[in-house]
Amino acid sequence: MPISRRYHEATKYRMETIASHPGLDWSSQPRPWKEFHSESRVELAEALLVGRDDDDGRPVLRRQGGGFGLAELSTLLLHTNGATAVTRDAARPVYFRAAPSAGALYPTEIYLFLRDFEEIEDGLYNYQIRDHSLAPVLEGDFGRDLAALTGRHPEIIRSRCVLLFSAVFFRSAWRYHERAYRRILLDTGHVLGNLVSFAPELGLRASLVGAFADEGLDDLLLLSRAEESVLALAAITEDGPGLAQVGRSDVEPSGGAAMLDLHRAAAIRQVVESVRPPLEALPLPVAGAQAVVRLPPPRAERRDSLCTTILSRRSTRRFSGEGMTREQLSDLLGQAYAPQRRLATEGRCEYFDPARLRTWLSIHEVEGLDAGLYRYDPVAHVLLLIRRGRHEAEDHHVALGQDLARQAAVVIYHSADLVETEAALGARGYRFLGLDAGHIGQRLNLDALALGLGASGIGGYFDDEVNALFGMGPNEAIIYMTCIGVSAD
Hints:
By secondary structure, the chain is of the alpha+beta class. It has 16 helices and 20 strands. Helices cover 31% and strands 23% of the residues.
């Protein structure tokens, strides 16, 4: 059995074992940030291109045509995973972020390679979210090192700014144990979703890089791989198509703990050649579909600016149970899945390998559509009806009894064939599935909020029951689920 499927099987929630969680050791709760003490910090707050709307005080972007300098970098980092609010309790401050995180544990760290910035010395930095600053890690130009570790990726070579996204494993494992790796990938995908979505607002492009020599890159950042490791890179440029690049793992599993064993098995020793995502989505079978439902053309405009949406974003805690319109669903899916259509029509890809993910919908209350189970084709923008009927009770059950899944107007599931993915990309394919699912989930989140709806991602569910609900095969794995509806908060 492929290691990715072994890991997925070993970390499934099941009815007979869900109550056996040992509980939380609050004395060992990790901090959701790293601290670098330095007198050479780069302060970013004063350079932000964010103001307040004169009428309602909402955050708005103050654009300026200054190229790519400190102001653009500061604004990009804030909207990627910056602190957007802070509350204080008896124990310690709680920082809300631009991207959601399971359990508010925030396992993702952002490092930056910077060169040729007028206001910043060349070097490697860590983004300090609490005071919105950069802490120097290493001085110097590491462009040649990054180029060598990524197989001379052309966007890495020409970029003055490369973001490196690492995972601090224990931040999530403290609560979710071996299943934490699933949450870590989704949470990092949320951050990537913000980055890729917001960069064009500043006239920038983010090219995702998934093919790199893992051990060499971790060594460059002075990381202990058993505690923290790089998951993805993004080269930031002022133009270009924003192409993603993936690679196939070439390391055999070592037989350690499930989470770290899968991560190590997904490593690449040396990037010889990279793999481009397919230019067309995988075929969508229509066998057994009761009907093909064509959705109205999605509108491109947003109700709010992306700056307003990201900085005001909060995960929905309660839905009202009210329905949404067919046009809202079309707009939501059309905007969230626009990168897949660009992949199929233009060869551009803002994800790693999105065609391997399949999208399923459990529709509860959508005006003009029958309640039922559907499969979504993001390229043709159509729904395939699998089975009519109301399934709120099943969605509520598979979501571990969370009321969100019963109250929502629609629940969106992402799945993938793990055997097929590992055959194509090795164990590293599992990493791309989680990152892409989190990325799409964050786009769904932002686009729902822009339409006046609420959204909440759910990473905890009874895996096998979801498979049974949609009639999926044994190799199909549920990666993520997102609830969309009218917020009651």
